[in-house]
Specification:
Largest sheet: 4 strands, antiparallel
Structural class: alpha+beta
Number of strands: 7
Strand order of the largest sheet: 2-1-6-7
Shape: elongated
Helix content: 40-55%
Radius of gyration: 18 Å
Length: 186
Amino acid sequence: MLASALAGAEDVGYRGPTACHAAGISYRQLDYWARTGLVVPSVRDAAGSGSQRLYSFRDIVVLKVVKRLLDAGVSLQNIRKAIDTLRSRGVGDLAGITLISDGTTVYECRSPEEVVDLLQGGQGVFGIAISGAFKEIEGTLSHLPAEAATTGEEIPAPPATSTSGADEPFNTGDELAMRRARRRAG
């Protein structure tokens, strides 16, 4: 799969709208989180008006995790602490982590035994298996274009087909990407 090949490539990134689509967040959230240092694009940060941030695959996984923690009611302050821990991990390390939270504290679990230990406390908790977010984003990004960090050249996503088996393009909902594709086609 294309996203698998690109997941480890540090010279490939995804523009803001693509990162938003893959993580399920608004551009306003993405911009705020970048400006406040919660999730800063690791491929290329904005360098003034008109420049584009480029997010790595790992960055987008972290964006998705932040979104899920917010949706579960975890405070942004506690999310920042959890993300600081995740920030130092590579893509492969992230896939083996499950985050467990009781709504206030976020715990990192690396084994089923650690999850059971937390559950035995009798308190209500929820978990986020990062490997699940990883697979979701990998599937979404396989339909969306990437960009080479050094040249700025767009790396188009392979054309996807609908689940009906017809040879019609799959609608990704990324209007800008569709406009660019139409412009290139003539």
